[in-house]
Amino acid sequence: MSFVARKQFSLGEWVNYVLLVLISLITLIPFFYVVSISLTDPEIYVPMRFSMIPERFSLAAYTYLLSTNSFLNSLYSTLFITIVGTILNVIVTFTMAYGLTKKSLPGRKIVLSFVVFTLVFNAGIVPHYLLVKELGLLNSYWALILISLTNAWSLIVVKSFMESLPSELEDAAKIDGCTDIGVFMKIIIPLSMPAVATFTLFFAVAHWNTYFNALIYITDSAKWTLQVLVKTLIIDSNSQGYATSSGDDKALPQETIRMASIVLAILPILLVYPFIQKYFAKGVMLGSIKG
C-alpha cells in the first residue's frame, strides 16, 4: 500500500503525461499513415482515404522502386556520399581537434580564432558555388563531401571532450616511448569512443539527408541523391524515369510509390540509430564539460 501511495500523481503530472502522449501521437500518426499507404495493395488503394492499417498488404511499390535504375542510382549515390563522407568527417574532425588541444602548436590561437569566426559569419551560397566550380567539382560526389569535411561546432565540442580526458595517461604513454600519433591512436581514440559514435551519427545523418547542396551542385539526374529523387517523386506527379507499371500490366498508384520512397529514404537511419543511441547523450555531455 505504501508503494501505491508513493506512485500517486498530481494534477500537474497528469497534464504533462497527457500532453506528452498527445504530442507523441501527433508525431507518430503521419509516419504510420505513410507506412500504411506504402504497404497497401494497389488493387484496393483508394485516394484520399485515411487508413492506419492496410486492408490488404502488398510490397508491390517497394518491389517496383527497387527495380528501377533511377532509384538504385540515387541509393548508390547516397550510400557512397554517406559512407565516404562520414569516414572523412570523423578523421578530419578528431585529428584537427586533437591538434588544437596542444598549446605548444604554432598558430593554435589563430586557427581557433578562424574556427570561432565561422560560427558567426558564413560566406554564403554564391562563394561556395564559385569555389566548387573553380575546383572542377560540379556534378561530382566530391562536391558534397569535400566542402563539409568538418564544421566549427563539431571541432569545438570534440576539442573540449579531449581536453577533459586525464592528461596523466598521455604523459605516461610518452614516457613509455609512444609518439604523438601512437598516443592519439592508442589512448585518445579508445577513450573518445562515445564522442566518435555520437559524431559518426551526426555526420552520417547529415550526409544521408543531403538535399540542398545536391540540388545546387549535381545537375546530372543519374547522380541525384535519394532526398532529391524523393522530392521529385513527391512534388512532380510524372517524375522522370518512373512509369506507373509494375511489370504485370497493372498500374501502380503514384501515391503508394511516393510513400514507399519516403519509407526507404528514412529506414536506414531508423535502423542504425538504436545501436548508437546509448553513446549519444554521453558523448555530447562529456564534450560540453569544458568550453
From TrEMBL:
Sorted UniProt keywords: Cell membrane, Membrane, Transmembrane, Transmembrane helix, Transport
CDD domains on file: TM_PBP2 (cd06261)
Residue span(s) of domain ABC transmembrane type-1: 75-275
Residue stretches spanning the membrane: 14-35, 78-98, 110-129, 141-162, 183-205, 257-276
Database matches in PROSITE patterns: ABC_TM1 (PS50928)
PANTHER family with a match to the protein in the record: ABC TRANSPORTER PERMEASE PROTEIN MG189-RELATED-RELATED (PTHR43744), POLYGALACTURONAN_RHAMNOGALACTURONAN TRANSPORT SYSTEM PERMEASE PROTEIN YTCP (PTHR43744:SF9)
Pfam families reported for this sequence: BPD_transp_1
Protein location: Cell membrane
InterPro entries: MetI-like, MetI-like_sf
UniProt-recorded name of the protein: Carbohydrate ABC transporter permease
Family according to the record: Belongs to the binding-protein-dependent transport system permease family.
Membrane topology according to the record: Multi-pass membrane protein
Main location: membrane
UniProt superkingdom: Bacteria
